[in-house]
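Office hours follow-up: a student asked to see two folded examples consecutively, so here they are.
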Amino acid sequence: MEINGKLYIVADNQDDCHELQDLLVGTPWQVSCFDDTTAAVNAIQVDHPAVVVINLPFSDLQDQLLALASLDLDVAYIMVLPEIDPRQVVELFHQNVSDVVIRPFTGDRFREAVKRASGCKSLLVQNRQYREQLEKANRELEESLRILEIDQMAGRQVQHSLLPVTPLRHGDYEIAHRIVPSLFLSGDFVGYNVVFDRYMVLYVADVSGHGASSAFLTVLLKFILNRILRRHISLNDHEAMAKAPLGFIEHINRQIMALGLDKHLTLFSASIDMEQNILRYSVAAHMPTPVFFSEGDVRTLPGKGKPVGIFENATWEVQEIMLPEKFAMVIVSDGVLEFLPAKSYREKEQYLADTVAHSDTSMESICEGLGINEVGDVPDDVTVLTIRRGF
């Protein structure tokens, strides 16, 4: 920190002032002398010199000068005493005096005292300014974090409002979901709807990363699905719905590739013909694979495919199975695997299948069996979606 270069000498006569001033000849200090204490105090309060040298008898020190020294944290005060009195020295240091010089002393000793006192005081001032700057930066950071948290909470409410009603029941079928985000905003998302009072269409998506950018992509998915469904409904296109989800993932892939978001996602999309009880589905690198439970038998549905948003001309196969009178299907995101007690991936898949087999297939029972209800801060977004019939 640069010192302002002003040094004031306060003495009871001009001769004593000039004696000390002569010791500073050849130094860069801009010296001013005062033989009137009141005038010196007024000048100090206005100019705030770097150093004030006081050459007054201890008994003649006015309270206002010592009080000024105790309150003025930016100025280095040096006291010149005619003799050593430890009690006086201690009291002066208690009054914020930076140094005490006892007569007789050499010019070098005096200049060294001035240099040391000004340097120490300059460092103290610099540290205080740094602390004030840090405190200000912390306040600004806290305010920015508060605003960001408010924005994130608002975004979470918006994202939550886009999720479908859970559970949704239609005829013998019930579909439900639960999402536990690792942050305010989630990269996991689900969508489902009933079209033409016959087709239940659904998807479970897991966008790479976390936070606002991943959440934005989930909103885009919601928009794309709604736009496709509105087009089919407006055209009364039963034929297209009977083939769903054929072409759905390809369409999403083209949209994401065109936006250049540097994001990809895994996806499970499906359509259930509730009149013919046929499940048609496609898998885009979604892991773990869905668990299918019926009549005491539990298995995982076959299917594989590339992630969405990486390969421009990728295609995804549509699988088809007949649905029994009574079944349950559970799809989870890979965030569930983070806290399952098993070690290997295959053991985790088996643990998931066993949990579904020993549950009553309700959302509450499955979440309890997987330990989701006991998990506090999850390391990754967690999604569970269940579809069942006859339970």
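And the second, which I mentioned at the end of office hours:
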Amino acid sequence: MTVDVHQHLWTPAFVDALRRRTTAPRLDGWTLHLDGEPAYEVDPADHDLTGRLALNLGLDLALVSLSSPLGIESLPPDDAWPIIDAYHEDALALPAPFGAWAATCLSEIDPARLAKTLDARDGVQNDAKDAKDDGGARGVGPGFAGLQLPATAVRDAVGLAGVAPLLDVLTERDLPLFVHPGPATEPEGPGWWPAVVPYVQQMHAAWYAFAAFGRARHPRLRVCFSLLAGLAPLHSERLANRGGEGRGQVDPGLFLETSSYGPRAIDAIVRELGVDIVVSGSDRPYATAPDPALGDAAWHAIAVTNPNRLLNGKESRK
């Protein structure tokens, strides 16, 4: 069961919802306007379903997610929900091998609405039951694999306390959380700046915030941090030198996704935490899944065994 836990695919209803907006985040044709980032020319071919299906040959599951840097989740409810609902509607209709992460509004926390969204999978996944019984991931076929939140929502104790009701919904359903960079709201530097500086800082903070404030509150929650949590685990020596704890300890419920990094960074993470918590993600169409260059056994762990454990909470039997 080969899995890519991190892709983006802008579907027609989602694109139309962004084009109806007159303030950021919005699309003017295919020009994306965001607060804090330069205008970005989106290539329509990047979000062509037929083309993406061709690129996903060889994958058993590709999980798409809302593009959290757009800031949709933090809009007022009347602005956020139409876009999120459009994303959900189209995500549920995507063909195999697609699955999806659910999204939610953060300006007005609504755990009941999240529960209803996640439970919708039960009514449409009968066709995937055999795959699940064979050890496949929950995300196979229609439905949501879990919830994605922007790192900006979980990077400190206050943020984690605010979203705690949402995380409880996940725990009740034994579904994971996917943490993705959020908006880069302060413009600074060249075009690559948001992806290399604030996104990485957000993920770094989210990793340590969950360890310090979130794990005790949510002891059974599985969490996957995109882009290797901004390489936060590599700072464990500094953490120990400054009075922190945890060096040498591995939380088997915390996973690190590989997008935007390569063999050197993946190797360093594996040396620090072991291979069992690393999962394959591409961030397609913005990048491709890196080759960890650690051999066939490591590749199988990162692309097959570990993602299935993230999604299912158990080892894949395939």
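Two things to take away from it. Residues 122-142 have pLDDT under 50 and may be disordered. The first helix runs from residue 12 to 19.
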